[in-house]
Design goal:
Length: about 240
């Protein structure tokens, strides 16, 4: 299956993608721009699931490093992802994109719980479904949440929007000779510990044959470009 023939995708954005030039939190103008990327992709007829991290607000590991109980800190991280999901929902709806947020930690005053069949219907009706709170358990990340939702929603691919345009053999910000891979196998990513997503997320994608497409979300219009098969990206598959 080529990128251009995908019908349903899961887009994973890190929480940092919502920070803009800031060091922390949510920059409304940046969230609006990200929402515009999602709208442009949806306008091509795609069904879109969205997972947003929480690292712009709180990461469990950072809390644990300061002496907090790890599980407790992870729950705080999961709550951060719900805030990001609500911010994105608001921005998408301002652009006229219908959305639903489904959280793995039930919060019935603010969003739906994760119900796969319901999410399925939302997608069929043209709504973007934003899955919040990762897998709903500590010691995981939103990468794993993204892989899990991509599998259960039968997405054709997991697109990971980052600050670089793919996966390199060295850090392209530090090494001018770094070379970008067009494609990689899941096993190579895991063996070489390449920074694509965390290992449990990569393994889940491998076991369910979900391609991972790593691309830059920084340039305007890039998500739609990549989805049309014209952008620059690294695709991880079998
Ligand atoms: N988290 C968790 N379980 C999950 C998803 C997230 O415990 O299933 C917590 C974890 O503490 C993590 C934080 O939520 O550090 C924010 O998620 P993540 O680090 O994946 O965000 P990103 O790096 O994508 O912004």
């Amino acid at each position: 299956m080529t990128i251009a023939s995908y019908r349903r995708i899961l887009l994973k954005l890190s929480g940092e993608a919502l920070m803009g030039d800031g060091q922390y939190g949510i920059d409304p103008a940046t969230v609006t721009r990200m929402a515009g990327e999602v709208k442009a992709a949806q306008d091509t007829g795609l069904e879109i699931c969205l997972v947003i991290g929480g690292g712009n607000i709180f990461r469990g590991m950072a809390g644990a490093a300061q002496g907090m109980d790890r599980a407790q800190a992870d729950y705080m991280g999961m709550l951060a992802t719900v805030m990001n999901a609500l911010a994105m929902q608001s921005a998408l709806e301002q652009l006229g994109v219908p959305t639903r947020v489904q959280s793995a930690i039930e919060m019935d005053k603010v969003c739906e719980p994760v119900i796969r069949r319901r999410a399925q219907r939302h997608l069929e009706k043209g709504r973007v479904v934003i899955f919040a709170a990762g897998v709903g358990a500590p010691y995981f990340t939103t990468d794993s949440g993204a892989a899990l939702r991509a599998a259960e929603m039968k997405c054709d691919a997991l697109l990971k929007g980052t600050s670089v345009d793919g996966v390199y053999n060295a850090d392209p910000k530090l090494d001018p000779n770094a070379v970008r891979y067009d494609t990689l196998s899941y096993d190579r990513v895991l063996q070489d510990n390449l920074k694509v997503m965390d290992a449990s997320a990569v393994a889940l994608c491998r076991d369910n044959s979900i391609p991972i497409v790593v691309f830059s979300i920084r340039e305007q219009g890039n998500l739609a470009r990549v989805l049309s098969g014209q952008g620059t990206a690294t695709t991880v598959h079998q």
